[in-house]
Amino acid sequence: MFDALNAWWAQQLVLCDWAFTPHPLAVDAVAAEQRLLELGITDRGALADQLFFALGAPSGSADQLLGALEWAALAGAAGWLSQAQATNWAHHLTRRITSDYSDQRAWLSDLRRALGAKGWETGADDRFIDACQALADLESEGEGITWQTLDTELAQRPAPASLWPQAPEAQPWRLGALFRPVVSYPASAADWPDASEWLGHIWQVYDREQLLEVMLWLSAQGERQRWDIEARELLTMDRAQRQEWQRGAVNDAPYAPVLTAFVNQGEPLEWAAWDWLRLVELAWAGACCGWLSQAEADDLAAHAADLVGRRYHDWHAVLKAYMRGQSLFEGVDRREMTPNARHKLLMHAPHSPWRHSLAALLDEPTRQASRTRIKAWRNTPHHWLLALAGVREPDVMLRQLNPSAPIAEQRRADAAVYLQDSLGLHADEGHQVLARYWLPAQAHHLNQLAADAAHGVLPPSQTRFGQPTPDELKQRNAVKGVSRHAATIHMAEKFAFYLHMAFDSGLFEREPLMQHAGALRSCLCRFYATPKRLLEAWFAWESCLPEPEHDSLINEIAWHLEDHGSLFHWLDWRPDAWCEPGERPTLTHFTAMSLVGPLNMRCGASHSWKVLVSAPTFANGSRATTTSPAPTICKSF
Q1: Residue 95 to residue 163: CA distance in whole angstroms
Q2: Least confident window among 113-127, 142-156, 305-319, 330-344
Q3: Which segments constitute the DUF1266 domain (predicted)?
Q4: What is the pTM of this model?
Q5: CA distance 461 to 470
Q6: For the chain, what are the domain ranges?
């Protein structure tokens, strides 16, 4: 069947020094691929980039449009694109050409100007002029496909189909167009032959396990956590304090001047897209080099789209956030730089993959499949320990793929020293010794104290034993504001950290420790129905009961509460049969402690309040005299 568009396309290829052929794709596959390589187009990813830029080239770029017609023909003949894809690209290009040029004379004239300015090889310019003359003769004689015939054909045809894959699971890959547009789905080595080399050179990632570790880290924490927390701290400072912080931080944090400028100038402190868009690029690289199955890569890209969609309302916000992250990463403020050509095309070109709305990137089955897989990678009790311990020690987020994997000997030794020197735990005592740090009685006391305070039952400000300081009074009065939050997390997060260190130390059998972790998960799931409830309770009690000798965790907790990628929001949140990591005091013990402790007494020493909230109560009802110090290798408490 005769196709006027294909015939006109074939006519134009004569201008590229082709012999005339009735169909533009009727070229030997090997010869077509060799020609692509000669043109510097080495793979399908590079082809997609070239076609994308050519179709969006500025006015007066006739040479780029002609080149794109040739690339599409060669790619279709070589099998890099299907015939339907190649023809669709030609359709888009032809419409662009006829919109820019009113007739063939204008088209050929601009081609001569553009190619002449570039300087053709000796002899090639003569053949090009001859080809131009041949096409001009056909046009004047009304032979072949004239410009008028082409216009009529295009007017009768429906608008061309989208240039980008349309399968629901392929839509999240549009995010990756910031780096390389995906023109063909599913991925193959032809899209990015040197993907594994790129991963090693840019990311120092050399196998599947390392790749997954980095991607899970990007989704859950990435670069953004440190920037977010430091920005939050800078907001509490005046300009002089910010400059002092910048001078002290710049050696270890080259981004410090940029971050300070963002805060001083009121720039939106948002850059999570820097992590999540790079997650998409890594997923595509993993699929191309075979380290990830297509389903795994799809789910990771969909996870990024899920997070992006919950954070940003449009593509402009995504791009701005990404560029802020890039500025911080490079330590160079890019806000006043000339806009990148790719960025301009993505935001404004009618053929951009980003013409799709953010909300349309995910349908519900794709979203649910992604969430199921992401949670499956984080479904062990050990991941609960990582989440809780990671608030104090952020580096553990790099261990999400397999929390039980062997660790460096130095890390193991540090954990063992901490347990022995700071907590007095020794391997010969067995794993059961950890139960002494599960303190339900302490949580009970705090809950009772908060409930009493909410009803106005507080220790008096004036007693015969002395008068509390203003800070102590402020702390006492603040307790009534946390009565709606169970205090279990205030105790349990410390137990989780000790248990995490016990795992790392290698001093104890792993299976009993895992049982403790499972019991901890079950207990916390019953006290807190959602991650949000747990983090809100932790934030409330951390704010209410600060420990002046240690840095506060409220900024870290607030970050996990607000960031949808945080590991807390992707844990296996389900209680098992009721159990706790340690022995729970009997009703008799609870009653005795309530009677002995002046928690709800309106008289007595004002300092009884301070003692009761600082000294932990063991499961058997006895009191410790001091709290245990935190390890020096992480944020202390």
Answers
A1: 14
A2: 113-127
A3: 201-356
A4: 0.91
A5: 10
A6: 4-156, 168-178+186-345+356-375, 381-614
